[in-house]
Amino acid sequence: MTEVILHIYDVTNSGSDKTNSTVVQINKIFKDRIGLGGIFHSAIQVYGEDEWSFGFCEQGSGVFSCPSGKNPMYTYRESMVLGRTNCSIFKVNQILRELSREWPGSSYDLLSKNCNHFCDEFCDRLGVQKLPGWVNRFANAGDAAIEIAENTALRFRQAKTEIVSASKVAYRFLAGVTSGSGGGNDFPGNSNRGSPRFQTAWFKNLITSAKPSSGSGIETQDGNVLQQRHPQISQDMDRPLRQNSGDSEQLL
């Protein structure tokens, strides 16, 4: 058995002294004072004096090694023992070869596949505890925020598709595109209140005018139906309307 040691650095490789100083201050405030986390680089040491980590490169593996605690790109911060592994040196070398193939440098992502994620995976295969939560908390929070934003955008797109589909269906309904409608229904004399074309015309008029229709067409159609069924009642109803047409207009 041998110890597995985690080495942690402040990320100060921006090329700007001001930016690097800001990162160090952020880490001091959010990690040292509040205990939330910060912007860190990490590496794992097991068997020997070198540490192993992961970074971006255009070609080849992103897994690399350097003398422990002496990565020249970052500012060394601290180290801690994560446990002891039962893996032999031969097994560790085998794990590193596998990770080198699985972690190409071009797959590096600051939020979802960075050096801290690599160290977590390495520790998992070594059978020791993973990194403390504060080491990669900022990246995990950023990745979660992006995932939420992407899910929200997807739901908006789905809702838009559903609205467009519903609008098309409504348009077809309002346009009177109904299956099985015969040509005879186009004439008022043959109208039927329950027919799809009659319902379409009435509903379209209601939507487009946004006020009650004059009803003349319907009344005429009703009158035809009423006259066909009860001629005498229809005639009796017509007389007072003709005699008191002026009064009716005043009441209306």
Properties at a glance:
alpha+beta; elongated; 14% strand; five-stranded antiparallel beta sheet; single chain; 252 residues; disordered C terminus
How would you sum up this structure, described in words?
Helix content is 51%, strand content 14%. The longest helix has 38 residues. The radius of gyration is 39 Å and the shape is elongated. It is built from 8 helices and 5 strands, in the order E-H-E-E-E-E-H-H-H-H-H-H-H. It has a 5-stranded antiparallel β-sheet. Strand 2 and strand 3 form a beta hairpin. The protein has 252 residues and is of the alpha+beta class. The C terminus is likely disordered.
Classify the secondary structure makeup into a structural class. Answer: alpha+beta
Name the helicity range.
Answer: 40-55%
Strand fraction equals: 5-15%
Average pLDDT reading = 73
Oligomer: single chain
The radius of gyration over CA amounts to 39 Å
Spatial shape: elongated
| Order of strands, widest sheet | 4-3-2-1-5
Order of helices and strands: EHEEEEHHHHHHH
Largest sheet: 5 strands, antiparallel
Summarize the structure.
This protein is of the alpha+beta class and 252 residues long. The protein has helices spanning 17-33, 89-102, 115-126, 137-174, 196-209, 216-229, 231-243, 245-251; strands at residues 2-10, 40-45, 50-54, 63-67, 75-85.
What are the SSEs and their pairings?
Layout: E1 2-10, H1 17-33, E2 40-45, E3 50-54, E4 63-67, E5 75-85, H2 89-102, H3 115-126, H4 137-174, H5 196-209, H6 216-229, H7 231-243, H8 245-251
Antiparallel strand pairs: 1-2, 1-5, 2-3, 3-4
Helix pairs in contact: 6-7
